[in-house]
C-alpha cells in the first residue's frame, strides 16, 4: 500500500495517479467551481484544495477524502480486503459469477491495496474466468501473472499458475501450447532439484491429461508410471488421487477399461477422505463414463454416480465440467431408451458450452441427433449430423475428434446412409494418422516397353 505523504505535493501526486489510472484527463475533474488550471495547480502541489474541493475531487477519482489528503484509508482497505475474502469464499462455494464480481470490484480500487492483495485478487479473477468458461480471458491473465517477475519459479504459486495455464490451453483446444508449458515447467522444477511436492505431482498429473488430449498416449503412460511411485511416497491423498485419475484416462484411451476402472476406484478412495467436493464430483463423473463404456454396464449405478456428480458440480464445477457430465447423462439416457431425457441433457450441455467449438459440443450434437432419430425425427437427426460434420471440419485434428467422427459414422450407418458413414469413418482414421494410400493414376505408372 502507498506510504503516507503530507503536504499539497502529496495530495497532488495521489490525485494525478488516481486520475490517470481511471483514464481521466484534467478536464474531466473540472466543474463550475473547479477550473482546469486549478486542477493543474493542485496536481503540481502549488495549491492546497479546500475541504469542499477535496470532497468533489475524491468522488471523481473514486477514493475517500482521507486517502486523498493523507494517503491512508484503513476503512477502505479493510472493505476491499473483505471483498477479496468474499470472492475466495464464493469460489469455494461454486458461486463463480459472484466471485468474479467481488474480485473485479476490489481490483477497480487497486491503489488502496498492497501488491500481495492485488495479486491474490488477480489470481482469483483468472480462476473465476476459467470456471465460467471464459478461457481467453483466463489465459490472458494467467500468462501475465506467470511471467511476472514476482512469480518465483519453483514456488507453490508459480507451480499452481503453470497448472492452470496448462489446463486452460488444454480446454481451449490448444494441445501444443498446453504440453509445451507443462513440459517447460516440469523441466524447471526438475532442474531446481527441489523435493517432490503435491504441486509438483499436480503439474505432472495435468501434463498427463494434456498428452492424452493430444493423442500422445505413450508419453502420457510413461509420465503416469513415473508419477505414481512418487505420489505413493510423498503425495497427499488428493495428489495421489489426481495421478490415479489421469492414469485412468490414459488407460481408457488405450482401451484398457478394466485397468482404468481399478485406477478410478483407487482415485475415489483417495478423494473420499478429503474435503475437495469438486474432485470427488469429477471422479464420480469419470467413473460413470467408464461404466458407460462397458457393454454390460450397471446402468442404475451409473445413473447414481452421474447424478451425484452433477448435483455437486452445479455448486462447485465450471461450465465445461458441468457440460461434460450432461453429455454423459445424455449417453446414459440413450442406453436406457429415454430419448426425451437424452434431448434435454444434450441441449443443456450445448447451452453450457455456448458457442464453443470443442469436441464436447460436437459429441453433444451427435447424441442430440441420436435422440432425434430415436424419437422418429429423421430429418432433424440428419440436419444435426451435417452440422456436426461442418463443425468437425473447422477444428484441429485430435484423437477426441476421431472418436466423434466414429460416432457420426455409426449413426449415419443406422440411418441407412452408407456413403456418409464411410466418409465419417475415413475422417476418423485420418484424425489418428491412418491415411489412405494414394490412388494409382495412369500418369503415375511406369511406361510399358515392347
From TrEMBL:
The keyword DNA-binding applies. This is Helix-turn-helix transcriptional regulator. CDD domains: HTH_XRE. Keywords: DNA-binding. InterPro entries: Cro/C1-type_HTH, Lambda_DNA-bd_dom_sf, TPR-4, TPR-like_helical_dom_sf, TPR_rpt, TransReg_Diox_bact_type. The keyword DNA-binding applies. Residues 15-68 form the HTH cro/C1-type domain. The lineage of its organism: Bacteria, Bacillati, Actinomycetota, Actinomycetes, Kitasatosporales.
Amino acid at each position: 500500500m502507498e506510504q503516507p505523504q503530507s503536504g499539497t505535493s502529496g495530495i497532488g501526486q495521489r490525485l494525478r495517479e488516481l486520475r490517470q489510472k481511471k483514464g481521466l484527463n484534467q478536464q474531466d475533474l473540472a466543474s463550475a467551481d473547479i477550473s482546469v488550471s486549478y486542477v493543474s495547480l493542485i496536481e503540481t502541489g502549488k495549491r492546497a484544495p479546500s475541504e469542499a474541493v477535496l470532497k468533489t475531487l475524491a468522488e471523481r477519482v473514486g477514493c475517500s477524502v482521507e486517502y486523498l489528503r493523507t494517503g491512508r484509508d484503513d476503512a477502505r482497505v479493510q472493505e476491499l480486503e473483505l471483498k477479496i475474502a468474499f470472492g475466495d469464499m464464493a469460489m469455494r462455494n461454486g458461486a463463480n459469477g459472484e466471485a468474479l464480481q467481488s474480485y473485479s470490484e476490489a481490483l477497480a480500487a487497486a491503489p488502496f491495496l498492497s501488491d500481495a492483495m492485488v495479486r491474490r485478487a488477480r489470481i482469483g479473477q483468472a480462476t473465476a474466468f476459467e470456471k465460467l468458461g471464459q478461457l481467453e480471458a483466463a489465459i490472458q491473465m494467467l500468462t501475465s501473472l506467470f511471467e511476472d517477475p514476482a512469480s518465483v519459479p519453483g514456488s507453490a504459486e508459480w507451480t499452481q499458475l503453470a497448472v492452470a495455464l496448462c489446463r486452460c490451453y488444454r480446454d481451449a483446444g490448444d494441445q501444443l501450447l498446453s504440453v509445451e508449458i507443462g513440459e517447460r515447467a516440469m523441466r524447471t522444477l526438475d532442474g531446481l532439484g527441489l523435493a517432490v511436492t503435491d504441486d509438483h505431482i499436480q503439474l505432472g498429473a495435468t501434463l498427463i491429461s494434456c498428452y492424452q488430449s493430444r493423442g500422445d498416449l505413450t508419453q502420457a503412460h510413461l509420465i503416469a508410471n513415473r508419477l505414481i511411485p512418487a505420489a505413493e511416497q510423498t503425495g497427499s491423498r488428493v495428489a495421489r488421487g489426481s495421478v490415479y485419475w489421469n492414469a485412468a484416462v490414459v488407460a481408457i484411451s488405450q482401451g484398457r477399461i478394466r485397468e482404468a476402472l481399478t485406477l478410478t476406484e483407487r482415485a475415489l478412495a483417495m478423494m473420499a477422505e478429503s474435503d475437495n467436493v469438486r474432485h470427488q464430483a469429477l471422479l464420480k463423473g469419470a467413473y460413470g463414463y467408464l461404466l458407460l463404456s462397458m457393454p454390460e454396464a450397471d446402468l442404475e449405478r451409473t445413473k447414481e454416480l452421474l447424478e451425484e456428480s452433477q448435483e455437486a458440480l452445479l455448486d462447485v464445477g465450471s461450465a465445461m465440467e458441468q457440460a461434460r457430465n450432461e453429455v454423459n447423462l445424455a449417453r446414459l439416457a440413450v442406453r436406457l431408451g429415454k430419448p426425451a431425457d437424452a434431448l434435454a441433457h444434450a441441449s443443456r450441455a450445448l447451452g453450457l458450452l455456448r458457442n464453443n467449438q470443442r469436441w464436447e459440443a460436437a459429441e453433444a450434437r451427435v447424441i442430440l441427433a441420436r435422440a432425434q432419430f430415436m424419437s422418429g425425427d429423421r430429418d432433424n437427426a440428419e440436419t444435426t449430423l451435417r452440422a456436426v460434420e461442418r463443425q468437425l471440419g473447422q477444428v484441429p485434428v485430435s484423437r477426441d475428434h476421431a472418436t466423434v467422427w466414429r460416432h457420426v459414422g455409426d449413426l449415419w450407418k443406422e440411418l441407412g446412409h452408407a456413403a456418409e458413414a464411410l466418409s465419417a469413418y475415413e475422417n476418423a482414421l485420418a484424425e489418428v494418422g491412418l491415411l489412405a494410400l494414394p490412388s494409382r493414376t495412369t500418369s503415375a505408372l511406369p511406361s510399358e516397353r515392347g
